[in-house]
Specification:
The chain is of the alpha+beta class and about 190 residues long. The chain has one domain (about 1-190): Jelly Rolls (Sandwich), CATH 2.60.120.590. It is about 15% helix and about 30% strand. The chain is built from two helices and twelve strands. The strands form three sheets. The protein has a six-stranded antiparallel sheet with strand order 1-10-7-12-5-2, covered by helices on one side. A four-stranded antiparallel sheet has the order 6-11-8-9, with no helix packed on it. A two-stranded antiparallel sheet has the order 3-4. Strand 3 (about 50-55) and strand 4 form a beta hairpin. The longest helix has 14 residues, at about 10-25. It binds succinic acid and fe (ii) ion. Fe (ii) ion binds next to loops.
């Protein structure tokens, strides 16, 4: 479900909170297990954070760069994630992880499934800020055709239930400047990891 502008009224507060989070846990371009550096720069907040390195993909309770716990999930984030999930009929969504992605122009995310979480009955809630992007929403096989869904500042996407393991990705972000966020796209995905 695409919830157009669902986060728009809170965009400034979310952006300010991201600034505080990345002051403690800076954006970094992680390595995939295959040895590639991701074009998207990432940070996390919450009890768990998604990380990748040569050892693989996983959730970790602390930031491998600092050894410190990830910054806490702001109350605003928890409320927004639960309200968006409820719009899509997923009640009582309490995420324990928020992956924060920063796409500079040219950055992209290839088709993948979110499958490092333990409980696939819980949805994924995705909040987009800043530059627009084309979100790819495919099927349960990588080779299935993918819908192209344009996402702009303030849009929220929720997927779960029978669609929880659909392949998805993001086409390369085009050059531009957003009045609040600047020359990048930010995406926050809320997950129940453990
Ligand atoms: C993701 O799949 O983790 C990110 C999706 C997005 O940036 O819209
Ligand atoms: Fe994903």
């Amino acid at each position: 479900m695409v919830l157009r502008s669902f986060a728009l009224a809170n965009a400034e507060a979310i952006f300010a909170a991201v600034g505080r989070i990345v002051a403690a846990a800076p954006f970094r371009q992680m390595q995939t297990p295959g040895g590639f550096r991701m074009s998207v720069a990432m940070s996390n907040c919450g009890p768990l954070g998604w990380v990748t390195d040569e050892a693989g993909y996983r959730y970790a309770a602390s930031d491998p760069e600092s050894g410190q716990p990830w910054p806490p999930l702001p109350a605003l984030f928890l409320r927004l994630a639960a309200e968006a999930a409820a719009e899509a009929d997923f009640g009582d969504f309490v995420p324990d992880a928020c992956l924060i992605n920063r796409y500079e122009p040219g950055a992209r995310m290839s088709l993948h499934q979110d499958k490092d979480e333990r409980d696939f009955s819980q949805p994924i809630v995705s909040v987009s800020l800043g530059l627009p992007a084309v979100f790819l929403f495919g099927g349960l096989k990588r080779s299935d055709p993918a819908r192209r869904i344009p996402l702009t500042h303030g849009d929220v996407v929720v997927w779960g239930g029978p669609d929880r393991l659909r392949y998805h990705g993001v086409l390369a972000v085009k050059d531009g400047a957003h009045p609040l966020v600047g020359a990048c796209r930010l995406n926050l995905t809320f997950r129940k990891a453990h």
